[in-house]
Design goal:
350 residues; alpha/beta; TIM Barrel; two-stranded antiparallel ribbon
C-alpha cells in the first residue's frame, strides 16, 4: 500500500497543479548593480555548511523512494548530486523499514561521492501510531543504508490530517527527537508548511543541528491528497484538501522566523537560480529544490543535467549583477520586499 501511495504522489506532482496559489519568492526584488566591478569567471560559488563543502549552496530536497519509479528518479538525482558536488536528501525511508526488499530504491547513494547525504524519516513514525514506532535499530539501519552524514526528520502533519491513512498522534515527538539528536546530527524539515519561530526554538532546545523550512509557496501536499481523494470520491478528504491548500508560513518568512542560531535551509517553491539567490539574501545557507526537478529526473537524465546547469548559471548571473564575488558577498546585496510577503516578514515585529 505504501508503494502505491508514493507512486501516486509522484504522478500527481508531475501531472496536476498542486502548487500554492502564490509563490512568495516573487515578492523579493533584488537591486540591480549596473557596474558590478567583478569578473564573472572568478565568481566563487562554494560554501561550507555544517562541515561539508559544496560547490554550490544547493541541495536536492527529499522527494521519493520505495518504488521502482522512485529508484530511477533517485538514481538520476544522485548522479547529478555527485556530478555537481551538491547535497541530496532521499524521500521518506519508511518503506525500507517495512519492506527491506525496497532498500535498493535508496541505497545507490551509498556508492556515490555526494558531499552531503541526508537520510529521512517522518516525525510521526517516531512514536506509536497504528503501527509501532521506529526503533533505534531501524534508524541506524536507514542512516547506514545510504552512508548518510545527516538525518532528516520531516514534519508533515497537515498531510497526515488530509490523507485517509494519516497518523494523528504528535504527543511525545519532541522528547524522542531529543533522544535521537544525541546520537545523530538531525535536520528538522517541514514539507510545505514552514516552521514558526516557536517551533524553531523548541527544535533547537532538543539538539537539532539545522532547520530546512520547507515553507508555503511550492508543492502543497494538501493539494496532492485532494487529488488522491478525488480518485476514491472521499468527500471529507477532498474538502480538507481544498480548505488547507494554501495553509502554512511562506518559505522566505520561515527562513527569517527560524534564524535562531542554527543553519537554515530555504526550500518550498524554488524554481531557478534567481530564487536560489533570494534564499541567500534572506539568510538561508542552502536552497533546496524538489518538484521543479522531478519531471526531468523521471524522464531524462540529460535534461535534468541541463536543468541544473541552467539553474547554476542563473545563480551566478544573479551574483554577477549584484557585484558578488562570493556567496558571502551575496548575503550583503540590496533588495526590497513587497506584499503579501512583507506583512509575513514583519509579523513577529509587531
Amino acid at each position: 500500500m505504501i508503494e502505491n501511495r508514493k507512486e501516486e504522489h509522484v504522478k500527481i506532482a508531475e501531472k496536476e497543479n498542486v502548487t500554492a496559489d502564490h509563490n512568495f519568492w516573487d515578492d523579493i526584488h533584488i537591486i540591480h548593480q549596473a557596474v558590478p566591478e567583478i569578473d564573472f569567471d572568478s565568481i566563487n560559488t562554494q560554501v561550507e555548511v555544517m562541515g561539508k563543502r559544496l560547490n554550490f549552496p544547493l541541495i536536492i530536497s527529499s522527494m521519493t523512494g520505495g518504488t521502482p519509479l522512485a529508484k530511477r528518479i533517485n538514481e538520476n538525482l544522485s548522479n547529478m548530486a555527485e556530478k555537481f558536488g551538491i547535497g541530496m536528501g532521499v524521500g521518506s525511508m519508511r518503506a525500507a523499514v517495512e519492506k527491506r526488499e525496497l532498500a535498493d530504491t535508496y541505497s545507490m547513494l551509498a556508492e556515490k561521492k555526494i558531499p552531503m547525504k541526508m537520510a529521512n524519516i517522518g516525525a510521526p513514525q517516531l512514536i506509536s501510531q497504528s503501527k509501532r514506532a521506529f526503533s533505534d535499530g531501524d534508524i541506524e539501519y536507514l542512516f547506514n543504508l545510504i552512508g548518510a552524514n545527516f538525518l532528516i526528520i520531516h514534519f508533515n502533519f497537515l498531510q497526515e490530517m488530509v490523507q485517509p491513512e494519516g497518523d494523528r498522534n504528535a504527543k511525545g515527538i519532541l522528547k524522542r527527537i531529543g533522544e535521537i539528536a544525541g546520537s545523530y546530527p538531525v535536520i528538522a524539515k517541514e514539507t510545505g508548511n514552514g516552521f514558526s519561530r516557536e517551533a524553531a526554538l523548541m527544535l533547537k532546545d532538543k539538539g537539532v543541528k539545522a532547520i530546512d523550512v520547507g515553507g508555503l509557496g511550492g508543492t502543497s501536499f494538501a493539494a496532492i491528497e485532494y487529488f488522491r481523494a478525488v480518485k476514491t470520491d472521499d468527500k471529507e478528504k477532498m474538502n480538507a484538501g481544498k480548505t488547507f491548500w494554501n495553509w502554512g508560513i511562506p518559505s522566505p518568512a520561515s527562513i527569517k522566523y527560524c534564524s535562531v542560531g542554527l543553519p537554515v535551509f530555504g526550500s518550498g517553491g524554488l524554481r531557478n537560480g534567481l530564487d536560489l539567490a533570494k534564499v541567500i539574501l534572506m539568510g538561508g545557507e542552502l536552497g533546496g529544490f524538489a518538484r521543479s526537478l522531478l519531471k526531468n529526473a523521471d524522464q531524462s537524465q540529460e535534461d535534468l543535467e541541463d536543468q541544473i546547469k541552467f539553474l547554476i548559471r542563473d545563480f551566478k548571473v544573479a551574483m554577477f549583477l549584484t557585484g558578488s564575488e562570493s556567496v558571502n558577498d551575496l548575503k550583503k546585496a540590496k533588495y526590497f520586499i513587497t506584499e503579501p510577503l512583507k506583512s509575513w516578514i514583519t509579523a513577529y515585529d509587531r
